[in-house]
Design brief:
Layout lengths: L3 E2 L7 E2 L9 H24 L20 E7 L21 E5 L3 E3 L1 H19 L2 H6 L7 E5 L5 H13 L5 E3 L9
Helix pairs in contact: 2-4
Length: about 180
């Protein structure tokens, strides 16, 4: 608690509360931190040389023949699909296009039907649901390659249809990018 001198020529002391903030401890702490950073930063900068991110070679996945491959894209601004003459590239405003087996364009209903028929044939060939459940490695997966310009709703619709058809696992295929490029 600090004492205040009262104004007006007397030697009276007012021992009331002082509401001023004592900034001395704050300044002391800030000076110590400043000194620490002035020493630590140059040391840290000198010890870190050029950081190189490792680049790994992409290996071919050992896909099972039974895995279902889908490509999800959209039409261009004019409604032209990929592979057709005059295709200007997928557009976020285009219509969704799903390619079954990366080749055949299908609608949502056709995707569900073909995926169900394909999965049913694989399960029957494996000896039925009980036989395929005994060996989870036999259960096929869906691998989706989505165009960078395709809206998420197109990809989500494809995922919904194949999971409704019975495929339990859906994954994505991406193109590897060199981080140092």
């Amino acid at each position: 608690m600090a004492a205040k001198l009262s104004g007006g020529g007397g030697a009276k002391f007012d021992l009331g509360q002082n509401s001023d903030i004592n900034v001395t401890p704050f300044v002391d702490v800030m000076l110590v931190l400043l000194i620490i950073f002035l020493i630590a930063v140059p040391v840290a900068i000198q010890t870190i040389e050029k950081l190189e991110i490792p680049v790994f070679e992409s290996t071919e996945s050992k896909d099972k023949v039974e895995n279902l491959l889908l490509t999800v894209s959209t039409t261009d601004e004019n409604g032209v699909s990929a592979g057709e003459p005059g295709f200007a590239g997928a557009s976020r405003n285009g219509q969704c296009r799903v390619y079954f087996g990366n080749v055949t364009p299908v609608t949502s209903e056709e995707l569900y039907d073909q995926a169900f028929e394909r999965l049913d044939a694989i399960v029957q060939r494996a000896g039925g649901p009980d036989a395929i459940m005994d060996d989870p490695e036999k259960i096929p997966q869906v691998h989706i390659r989505g165009d960078v310009n395709a809206p998420w709703s197109c990809v989500a619709g494809a995922i919904y249809n194949v999971q409704a058809a019975g495929y339990p696992t859906v994954g994505f295929i991406s193109n590897p990018v060199d981080p140092n490029a």
